[in-house]
Amino acid sequence: MNLFNDSPLLLPDAELEFHADWLDRATADLWLAQLRAETPWQQPQVQLYGRQFPVPRLLAWYGDAEASYRYSGLTHQPLPWTPLLAQIRARLVAALGQPLNAVLLNYYRDGQDSMGWHSDDEAELGRNPLIASLNLGGSRRFDLRRKGHSRIEHSLLLQHGSLLVMRGPTQHYWQHQVAKTRSPCAPRLNLTFRMIRSNL
Ligand SMILES: O=C(O)CCC(=O)C(=O)O
Ligand SMILES: [Mn+2]
Fold first, then answer.
1. pLDDT at 46
2. In angstroms, what is the span from residue 60 Cα to ligand 2's centroid?
């Protein structure tokens, strides 16, 4: 397993950029504290093998009014942008030169909170989606594997203030996860900014 800390990451059939120190420490601390305090977290149920389970993390979905999002057979309406989330989005849009109209906030309370293997390949994200993923709080390992394979090919340590950008064919060929860990870890907040195409 490789732990990369540079950008770009050279993975075949993927376009990944990792900025370990995208945010200065003071701003990262401030955004983390404010988002933890003001976010109305939810823990929806998902259906798995015919049974209902709570997702193993807390979520909040914000975006433009048309950026509704489907998962687990449900349509989720976005909450309106808060001043802080609008400010973060504007900074990312300026840095990336691409529009973004929604953000999923994931809150990992401890090492038992996780996100299973998946690709961000829902139809409403379009063919080659841009996913800009900002990390605040505790560090967690982010793994990548090829679709259809179980071997982890690359891992990144996503620490406070880092930004991971996935583009191009990445979601088509690769899956990612944030696995549970027994190592003690501080609460972590991840924001994945996306562009939802509602007119599909
Ligand atoms: O928490 C992370 O770094 C991953 C989040 C993610 O993959 C997603 O929201 O789709
Ligand atoms: Mn994802």
1. 86
2. 14
| pTM > 0.90: yes or no | yes
CATH number, domain of 121, equals 2.60.120.590
- pLDDT-based confidence at residue 200 (cuts at 50, 70, 90): low
Cβ pair 57, 48 in contact under 8 A:
no
Pocket test for ligand 1, best of 192, 193, 194 (most atoms within 8 A of CB): 192
Give the mutation target among 105, 106, 145 for probing the ligand 1 site: most ligand atoms within 8 A of CB.
106
Q: How many domains does the chain contain in total?
A: 1
